[in-house]
Amino acid sequence: MLDFDEKKFEEKTLSREEIFHGKIFHVVRDIVSLPDNTTSFRELVFHNGGVAIAPVHGDKMILVGQYRKALEQFIFEIPAGKLEVGEELDPQAAALRELEEETGYKAENLIEMSAFYGTPGFSSEKTYVYFSSELTKIKHPRAADVGEFLEKVEVALPEAKEMIATGQISDAKTILAIWYWEIQQLKAEVEKNA
């Protein structure tokens, strides 16, 4: 880990104005004091966080497609969702819930691939991303969220990479998951040939 004085870069909040408080996130505008003693403003989005899971069933990854209004397009993603209040203490359980609701599967084990901030310049949203290749179909899974319309597909790695190239997959968490999956396959191939 790099050793340096990060405190000298701190921006101190001088004032905060609440702009919007919604069900999923809230927005504020801060006036801040910068390290050079000037002031500026920051528009910030506070979000409880999210979870995602890359489920691999046999030699295929399960993806869900849905229309994303912010993009005005239909894209495919790994199963994901927001952390409900209180779930930030156990994001793994939230990922298992999302997997069941969106695919009808449960995972026997989860490997945490990463936990990352997608847009730290203005958002506090942290996404926990898991991987599992040990899935079991559930007879009576939890229902999908109200107002959520999904198309479930299973794709092999070459098809997933092609979907990235054509823009059918365009979100960071899913691209990360597919790269992780490819690395796992390459590791398995190396071990098999060793």
From TrEMBL:
Q: Which CDD domains did the record assign? A: NUDIX_ADPRase_Nudt5_UGPPase_Nudt14 (cd03424)
Q: Which SUPFAM superfamilies match?
A: Nudix
Asked whether the UniProt record includes Hydrolase among its keywords, one would answer yes
In the record, what terms sit under GO molecular function? hydrolase activity
Domain Nudix hydrolase, chain residue ranges per copy: 46-177
Q: Which domain of life is it from?
A: Bacteria
User: Which cofactor is recorded for it?
Assistant: Mg(2+)
The processes (GO biological process) annotated in the record are:
nucleoside phosphate metabolic process; ribose phosphate metabolic process
* Keyword terms of this UniProt record: Hydrolase
Source organism per entry reads: Lactococcus allomyrinae
**What are the annotated GO cellular component locations?**
cytosol
Q: Which InterPro entries match?
A: Nudix_hydrolase, NUDIX_hydrolase-like_dom_sf, NUDIX_hydrolase_dom
- What's a Pfam family in this record? NUDIX
Ion transport as UniProt keyword: no
Provide the protein name. Answer: NUDIX hydrolase
